[in-house]
Amino acid sequence: MTRSVVLGCGSYLPSRILTNADLARKVDTSDEWIVQRTGIRERRIAAPSERTSDLALAAARAALADGQVDPQSIDLIVLATSTPDNTFPATAVSVQAGLGITHGAAFDLQAVCSGFIFALAAADGFLKNGGFKRALVIGAETFSRIIDWSDRATCVLFGDGAGAVVLEAVPQNGTGTDRGILTAHLRSDGRYRDKLFVDGGPSSTGTTGHLRMEGREVFKYAVAMITDVIVDAFAATGYTAADVDWFVPHQANKRIIEGSAQKLGIAPEKIVITVDKHGNTSAASIPLALSVAVKDGRIKSGDLILLEAMGGGFTWGAILMRW
Ligand code: UT7
Q1: CA 85 to ligand 1 center in whole angstroms
Q2: Whose CA is nearest to atom 43 of ligand 1?
Q3: Does domain 180-322 have CATH number 3.40.47.10?
Q4: What's the Cα-to-Cα distance from 302 to each of 43, 128, 180, 298, 323, rounded to whole Å?
Q5: Does 1.10.10.10 match the CATH number of domain 2-171?
Q6: Is 280 a catalytic residue?
Q7: Catalytic annotation on 9?
Q8: Under 8 Å CB-to-CB from 262, ≥6 apart: which residues?
Q9: Could you report the average pLDDT of every consecutive run of 10 residues in the chain (323 residues)?
């Protein structure tokens, strides 16, 4: 059977660092509160001239270089973002043009913080169907543009960044020892759409709007939703928490990540955590974390990797893959 195998992985972070101390000078908060409640110490903020497509293009180039992949061999680009350059066209076509690609297809996908999981699963489906051979899957965000910087409950949580992977359709044996995406599980439940949303948009207010969140409510559901969908991924493959080499979760809150790992029985030393340095970069957080753990030598070819995310919608999902 065909599996979607990772050829390369890369990321891009804007150079400006915003620390908790910087934020404490703007709103009524403290480094102690932010670290204790979230694990976040600093986040990156895009320069005024930097758009989501600029971050995405830099991450895409890094992933292509990492895999020694010729951009002209890419025939599909799926970009997960909730902060596109424009309402349309898709930010993905700017990346496509930036790479000088004029064949194949490029489109955006929006599932907020679960966006990268949804985009990986979508690309996996396209590659398995045989219509495409090599895909760039990107998560890129400039959440700094939709943050209400006077709201201490949300402005301390988010950051900007981008990450990308290159996937290739490769014939495999069809067993759990295959490389590539082994199983993907996606969920959503729109009853919770007003727990985490942006209060603007083209067909409602005609404005971009700002992020609004009932943080405590999101927190309440997060661990149960995350662990449920991971249990589905284990059931589909026969693997268990003990088989996982690296747990690379969406980076929203260290307490949610550690709570989920503990409930599932995943050892703390197997968790890749970047929320301290990046904050919550929504759809970009998983490929950013993957990129960090590949670069520092933790993630190696053949490792069993567990990805999960949960966010606005609510949307949530998990993927088990062999690197
Ligand atoms: O990626 C998408 C998914 N999003 C998430 O996963 C976010 C989920 N939620 C969370 O991570 C947490 O709920 C937060 C980090 C947002 C908040 O942590 P919490 O422990 O749930 O705090 P809380 O909202 O219950 O607020 C506790 C107190 C409140 O004061 P009172 O009412 O107890 O007097 C808040 O006003 O902390 C106050 N507070 C702050 N204090 C200092 C809220 N934000 C801040 C702040 N600095 N930045």
Answers
A1: 29
A2: 153
A3: yes
A4: 31, 20, 9, 12, 5
A5: no
A6: yes
A7: no
A8: none
A9: 98 98 98 98 98 99 98 98 98 99 98 98 97 98 98 98 98 96 98 98 98 97 97 98 98 97 98 98 98 98 98 98 98
